[in-house]
Amino acid sequence: MTPFLFLQALRQLTFVEEHYWIRGTIFVLSVVCLFLAAALCILFPAVELRPIRDGTYNVGVVDVQLPVVFALDLLNKCNPEVVGKKETNGFVSVRILYPTRDAPGSVPYLDPKLAKLICAQLMKLGAPPPLKEFGWILHTWCLHNLPIRRNATPVDDETVPLVIFSHGLMGNANIYSHQGMSLASKGSCVLMINHSDGSSPIVEQQDGSIMHYNEEIIQLFKDKKEEVYKDARRSQTDWRVAEFVSACTALVNLNQCNILELELLGVSFVHKLNIKDVTFMGHSFG
């Protein structure tokens, strides 16, 4: 950025103001400097991100579509126009982080299959108008890896407490993996939910389809339709509760009987969970 600042200082000189071609040249060079700086920061990150793993355990991870049974009374509260039509039997996309004695591995911070989509969505939803189409600005996130082992063997010489985590608006389980990893390294089994209420940038569903962030709700707020906006957020919250309760119940049940989805990964939590020690946790909308 030093050449860029030098060029901006040159623009203040009197003789530069008097010559349009010099001003034009400085402008072009300034733009080139900015793009080069952005490209170099993305391709060659100056600082390696250090994840928080401050406990005594190594950490394992499984990403799975958890089969659940939704409580009918909770389903009836949800507005299908906001969250879509839901059935009693379904699946919740989750990431489970847990203590293991297996050696540390390396897992991408963002799911490689969805990483570019996630970055594009986050820029589209959160960046100022000139930058909304530049998903590549978050490319550094795609280069980062977590020191955890996929499908590791859970510790089996003790039962571990449970933590169920609900992400905030424009979040998902991947983005909050640092927090989950820290808790798992201290001895907790952490269930992180990818909510399908339209609050996550990208959610892969059980049938392989992709659910995107619900931008219509934000438009209601911008249009100052406050009551309709509040009702829509309320319906999202109701669906989150249904997902949260059903996922919690399913996790507790894993202490008694394994499911096919985990059997295929070679992972079992049977008799390894302390179901009397459960913590509910979330961030922002969660």
What does this structure look like?
The protein is of the alpha/beta class. It has 2 domains: 2-43; 58-282, Rossmann fold (3-Layer(aba) Sandwich), CATH 3.40.50.1820. It is built from 11 helices and 10 strands. A 6-stranded mixed β-sheet has the order 5-1-2-7-6-10. Strands 3-4 form a two-stranded antiparallel sheet. It has a two-stranded antiparallel sheet with strand order 8-9. The mean pLDDT is 84.
Topology:
Layout: H1 2-10, H2 14-17, H3 20-43, E1 58-69, H4 72-75, H5 80-83, E2 89-100, E3 107-108, H6 115-126, H7 139-143, E4 145-146, E5 149-150, E6 160-166, H8 177-185, E7 189-194, E8 202-204, E9 210-212, H9 215-222, H10 226-253, H11 260-263, E10 273-282
Parallel strand pairs: 1-5, 6-7, 6-10
Antiparallel strand pairs: 1-2, 2-7, 3-4, 8-9
Helix pairs in contact: 1-3, 9-10
